[in-house]
Amino acid sequence: MQQYRNSTLPWVKNNIIVFLMVLSSIFSTPEKTECQQHLVKILVTSPHIGAKEYRAVADVLAGSIIRELNRHGGLEIVDREASEKYLRDKGLDEWVNNRDIAIEVGEALGADIVIYSSLGRNYDTFVYSIAFLEVERDIIQRIVQGSFSETDPPARIGRLIRNDMTRLSIFIPTPSELADPGINLREQTVDPDVLPKKMVIEEFPNMGMYGIMEQILTYYRVFPGEIEYMKFEQQRNMTRLQFRDDMDSELTELFNKFRIYADFAIRHNMQVYFIKDCSIRAVNVLLANKIPVLFSPNGEGMSVLVGYGGLRADGYSYFIPYGTEPFEAYDFTHRQRVAVMIILPKAGRKGGISRQYLESAIGRYRDEWDKSPQLVEIKEGFLDILSTSLD
């Protein structure tokens, strides 16, 4: 009997190994295929040039862009020669110089992003522009421009492009964003009764070309495109005074600014709330959930709170605005808190929080006038401000 067991043992071991290998191949292959499908594909086209003798410089420009994208990692770079061949076969020049051709080539080669550029010469200086285009949404996120001397070596050009690509790389979507799994994300909130002593939104981006609105939307990975931001800037510079009997001129101007911010955010599928009778502790709750808080420190300019620290048992702390010095909660006056607004994704998307939680969390902490903070949703540009909030 012992001899029979010894003879069958190798057969059993071998079959177990084979069985495990089959299981491993079954469960590992789909995962690998899915990852390959979700890689972000970027096409860097040949730069448009004004004369054929600039071709060598244009190759340095395109090569520098591709090198920085490879440095970024997690991307699939579409072969530049494939785009040149596609254009040649259609009887066109090998470069891309406008968004229509960029979209056509991008769709033909299955690219998610197309980066196209142009190169010209002004006396002894080369000038260039680089455009970042999302193919599916047909949106140009940004166009950067620069120049270098005709005597500059390739290393100098590479350094310039590296700085430019730092500004553009923020718009590159992650593989998960392409798959858009946000609907299935679990809402992550903090217990409003047990707030951390300190909370700072570390991932809040630096100030961009279009100010606080661009910061907030970039923080939530929402990129409307440069043309949309240009329209926003034009609208923000227009005077839109609508006076009310229960509002002085300062508050009228401030609420009109908030209305413009709200219109823009709602247009890009965000939810916007005005906090009526906002208390100090309610602001802590919002920041603890990593929600930037918009307010006006002096009734004129716009600022955004990105954190707090030193939270005490009485609910007071110091607040951390972006770009300026922290200040004590005692200096956050009731009048300033009349105009507090938050912008965040809709519930079910990454960073989104349900209205039910927000109402419950901030409503439990009354202000110094013993009023409970209330959440007022802004819809279709209509700011429902009750006169009681302005007392």
The helix/strand series, from N terminus to C terminus, equals: HEEHEHHEEEHHEHHHEHEEEEHEHE
- Measured as a percent range, the helix fraction is 40-55%
Catalogue the unreliable spans. Answer: 1-9, 22-37, 383-391
Shape: elongated
Distance between the termini: 95 Å
Cα gyration radius (Å): 28 Å
Question: What is the helix tally?
Answer: 12
Q: For this entry, what is the oligomeric state of its chains?
A: single chain
Mind summarizing the main beta sheet? 6 strands, mixed
List keywords for this structure.
6-stranded mixed β-sheet, 14 strands, 5-stranded antiparallel β-sheet, alpha+beta, single chain, 40% helix, disordered N terminus, elongated, disordered C terminus, 391 residues
